[in-house]
Amino acid sequence: MAETNIAQAVEAANCAASYDANVKFLLADKQVLARILKYAVREFKSTALEDIMASIGNDIEIGAKPVDTGLSNMGRITESNVEDNIPGEGKIFYDIRFSAYHRKSETKFLINVEAQRSSDPGKLGYHLENRIIFYLARMISAQKQTEFYHSDYDSLKRVRSIWICLDNSEDGDSIEEINLDRKNIFGTKENAYNMDLMRGIIIRVRTGLNRKESQNVLISMLEKLLSQMGAEEKKHALASEYGMIMTTELEGRIRTMCNLSQVIEAGGIEKGIEKGIEKGIERERLNAIERMIKAGATKEQIVLYGYTEEEMALAEKLVYKSVEKS
Hints:
Blueprint: H1 2-12, H2 15-27, H3 30-40, H4 49-55, E1 60-62, E2 77-79, E3 83-86, E4 90-93, E5 96-102, E6 107-116, H5 121-124, H6 128-141, E7 158-168, E8 174-179, E9 198-206, H7 217-225, H8 231-242, H9 248-260, H10 269-294, H11 299-304, H12 309-325
Parallel strand pairs: 1-2, 6-7, 7-9
Antiparallel strand pairs: 1-5, 3-4, 5-6, 8-9
Helix pairs in contact: 1-10, 2-9, 3-4, 8-9, 10-12
């Protein structure tokens, strides 16, 4: 019995991983993906949202297992490692990957969406633009023997890698593109072939509680979707301002995000998570210690699972108070 309670306590304390997973599942909702395509991918700009949703394949893959029972079977999502493994080149894992078919041009797009806590080279240890180029290159090379065979390079599908960066300043909301560019160095090239095969897109979402609403509809929607506002307020804003339908799956994810208290706040998402830990995970840790004490776990066992003596002392006080009340 003690072992079961200890295992449950350890799992309950893992809220930071839960936040990351829920961000991915929120972004992978077809309603959210459709808006990302419409307002960030130029080919879909003039397409109605309903048509974009219909154009998104049922092959949406997320590189993380769901953390909530009952929310993994969303119909439109496939759990997967979303792994790109080329012998001799190592593995990379995509946050979200799916295909979309642009009916007007009869073009298939392979899309990758990444939720990036920071785009600061000082925090990352590299420039994000280089990673985006690497992902684009792998999405191209991975098509051999899947989208085209032998030397049929004209059958390559267009790839778009979309990066949502979550730690920008109050005036840092922006969307920018990274793409191939043809320049004529000498002579005249007639009937130049369209080089728009791969494009990286960076969407910069702002932090800060007192920021003004973004003039960009996509950024404004993402900031509300990932904000710290309460679940009911958030659902109302997404439905009334952006026309989103509150499905059972979407409502569940929004509620989970709010319960985790893992939010984008002033000072960056890392500080938001720290504050969430202070408010939410701290309480969960104390609850976990309470359960272990009541289950008969020793102090040595509890400390072994990463809890501090200060947390032990506070949890013991809470246990004594609950006993006195009863």
